[in-house]
Design a protein that fits this description.
Layout lengths: L1 E9 L2 E9 L6 E7 L20 H10 L4 E5 L19 H16 L4 E9 L1 H13 L4 E4 L6 H12 L2 H15 L12 H4 L4 H8 L3 H6 L5 E6 L7 H10 L4 E5 L12 H24 L1
Helix pairs in contact: 1-10, 2-3, 4-5
Length: 289
């Protein structure tokens, strides 16, 4: 494997990531790896979590071992993706889609790369689907991708975890944001979740129905979902599959949202990489035929 650092200038700063090429000199398929929600870096690590995961890095390495090049990256404003003067209140979901399109083009420019597939985990799955057409992607892989709007997932989490005196105002705030209206007076108990500066981003995210987005794609789709995922469950994958009946659905027994098999992240990322690499090989055979 050959690893190198990538920097892509942008109007607002720069995007930075890691290019990992498989051994050898021949042409190879490639995947842009798009991480999940929050301030997640190129390796899949998030300062809000108690310990590093490195699940995206491990996925990249497992794919390289199977002949697939990858580019994984820090989100704008995270790690080495420098965004001077970044303000939370100006960030929109569409900005993350724009970044994926730009980085897919950068990956496609590599001499050894044949075609680029967008591989998204969790929130990254929706970003991949929205970016696919403009990125002229070979395909889209959704790993633990939601089958419902983000607001529907948040509603489920609120109803199941918050006490009634907090859940009521939280659900009312959520409904207002779903209608694309800002909420001025957020209760103190909900400021972390619905602070005014994050509301524009949430509203931009809530506009998209993942199943409807997938249904409109022309690219082939692979859906990978774990049975131990308590954040996005198998029913979400089935909703996506119903929207795209021609997609391949792979359910990984015992895998959770972090791509871990009973606490074993290397085992989970190996399982996912095997599915993705085999699917990409079939796509390449189909193109050749």
């Amino acid at each position: 494997m050959v690893e190198s650092q990538v920097e892509l200038p942008t109007p607002w700063g720069r995007l930075a990531g890691t290019l990992l090429l498989p051994a050898g000199d021949g042409p190879c398929p490639a995947a842009l790896l798009i991480a999940g929600s929050g301030p997640t870096d190129r390796d899949g690590n998030n300062p809000l979590l108690p310990a590093p995961l490195d699940n995206i890095r491990r996925l990249a390495e497992a794919l390289a071992a199977r002949g697939v090049a990858t580019l994984r990256y820090d989100k704008r404003g995270v790690g080495a993706s420098v965004y001077p003067g970044l303000s939370e209140e100006v960030l929109r979901f569409e900005h993350l889609v724009d970044d994926a399109v730009a980085l897919a083009a950068r990956l496609a420019s590599e001499q050894r790369v044949t075609r680029v597939t967008l591989v998204g985990h969790s929130e990254g799955a929706l970003i991949a689907a929205l970016a696919a057409e403009d990125a002229q992607a070979q395909g889209v892989v959704s790993i633990a991708g939601a089958g419902r709007r983000a607001s529907a997932l948040m509603r489920k989490q609120i109803e199941g975890h918050l006490p009634a005196d907090i859940a009521g105002p939280a659900l009312a705030t959520l409904a207002t944001l779903e209608s694309q209206q800002a909420v001025q007076d957020v209760p103190d108990a909900l400021v972390l979740l619905f602070r005014p500066t994050v509301q524009p981003y949430l509203m931009s995210w809530f506009r998209y129905d993942p199943a409807a987005v997938l249904a409109e794609l022309s690219q082939p789709v692979l859906l990978v979902q774990g049975t131990a995922d308590v954040q996005v469950d198998v029913e979400d994958a089935r909703q996506l599959h119903a929207a795209r009946p021609d997609a391949r659905l792979k359910v990984v027994e015992g895998m959770d949202h972090l791509l871990s098999l009973q606490g074993d992240i290397p085992g989970g990322t190996e399982a996912v990489a095997a599915e993705v690499a085999a699917w990409l090989q079939e796509l390449d055979v189909g193109v050749a035929a």
